[in-house]
Amino acid sequence: MGRTDRAARAIAASPAAVYAALVDRAAVESWLPPEGMRGRIEHWDPRPGGGFRMVLTYLDPTGSPGKSGDATDVVEVGFAELVPDQRVVQRADFVADDPSFAGTMTMTWQLTPTGAGTQVTVTADDVPPGIDQQDHEGGIASSLEHLAAVVEG
User: Which residue ranges does the record assign to the Activator of Hsp90 ATPase homologue 1/2-like C-terminal domain (predicted)?
Assistant: First the structure.
């Protein structure tokens, strides 16, 4: 069993608005890449058993070698569970030759209504050991910041 990383953020939008941004291709492509990266979704099938493939590219690859190529990370994501306005569970596998990035990481996006909007908690279970914990949690926090910008308008 691997490591668990977490991040959370209060977002001033309804759980329905946040959930919609978690399952919309264009929205995911805009908010999921953390700061310093851009993303491109190659295929999209938003249903349990479906998934997507995202290519993440470092804007400045200096000192940030990619897992899948010189300046890229490629991740295959499967949707394990989609519960409208409550939760999205994804299974993510990085495309990499390095065995320290192997294995399936489970990402749970939990949406909890609050008086001011939605508390979004992201839990990443079985994080591959090649992924630095501080960098990963910072990346999740960055994605949450971008998600907030998209849904808060």
Answer: 13-152
